[in-house]
Write a structure and sequence with these properties.
Layout lengths: L4 H14 L2 H10 L11 H14 L1 H7 L5 H13 L4 H11 L6 H9 L5 H12 L8 H14 L6 H9 L6 H17 L1 H10 L4 H13 L5 H6 L9
Helix pairs in contact: 3-5, 5-6, 5-7, 7-9, 9-11, 11-12, 11-13
């Protein structure tokens, strides 16, 4: 089956029909500097992505245009969820990342990404490693959010913490992602993560925000929460 321009136009018509002015304003308030064309809720975009994946995802990617927030979001969902070997999907990821200019598209893309088995995870991990220190904000955030969602596991935790430690970027959305990742690591691997916090080698914002997130987590032991305050750093 092929995906026609008429079918793509029909998706845009469906976006228009699903548009919600109040949600559009609310969503834009959460994503500073981003204008949404329609104001379509994420579950609706995800529903459309599943239909596209079932029909002809590659044809859709050829026909689609990164013309609006919703179109970019849909494109990311299709790439993340399509059933294609990782070596064929990674070039699509490389082509998509330059389109990502806000945390919502980045994190939704990461959250929907399917990896089948250890071999695919290792292949993606090799792709992610250099992105942790990439100066492009959402390339680096992509690496950190993929790590916290897919790789906080025994085979990857030691290297993952080192990669988080290497993130010196000053962009807010990178540091927030790094702090979020450190907090997830602490819940699952407290000993290894505490060793990182004890070193005080993270940027002050990242260190302090990670400690805040750990203290706010219901999954972190209550006895640790006061102890962690000793590792807060003076503000930069």
């Amino acid at each position: 089956m092929s995906f026609s321009q008429e079918e793509y136009a029909a998706i845009l018509e469906e976006f228009a029909a699903l548009s919600d002015g109040k949600y559009k304003a609310f969503n834009e308030s959460l994503i500073p500097g981003t204008a949404t064309a329609y104001g379509v809720r994420v579950p609706e975009i995800r529903r459309i992505s599943r239909l596209v994946i079932k029909k002809d995802p590659m044809g859709f990617l050829v026909a689609s245009q990164p013309g609006s927030y919703e179109e970019i979001m849909l494109r990311g969902m299709v790439i993340a969820g399509m059933r294609l070997p990782i070596e064929e999907r990674l070039p699509l990821v490389e082509g998509f990342l330059p389109l990502v200019d806000n945390w919502a598209v980045c994190d939704t893309f990461c959250g929907g990404f399917k990896l089948k088995g250890r071999e695919e995870k290792d292949r993606m991990w090799a792709f992610l490693r250099p992105l942790f220190t990439d100066e492009r904000t959402f390339f680096a955030r992509f690496a950190a959010v993929m790590f916290l969602g897919r790789y906080v596991e025994a085979p990857y935790i030691e290297e993952g913490l080192l990669l988080l430690e290497s993130m010196r970027q000053e962009a807010y959305y990178v540091r927030m992602a790094a702090a979020w990742a450190v907090s997830v690591c602490y819940v699952k691997f407290p000993r290894q993560t505490l060793e990182l916090l004890e070193k005080r080698s993270l940027p002050a914002f990242t260190q302090n925000k990670a400690i805040q997130k750990i203290r706010e987590s219901y999954r972190a032991p209550a006895r640790d929460k006061e102890m962690l305050l000793a590792y807060k750093l003076p503000k930069e």
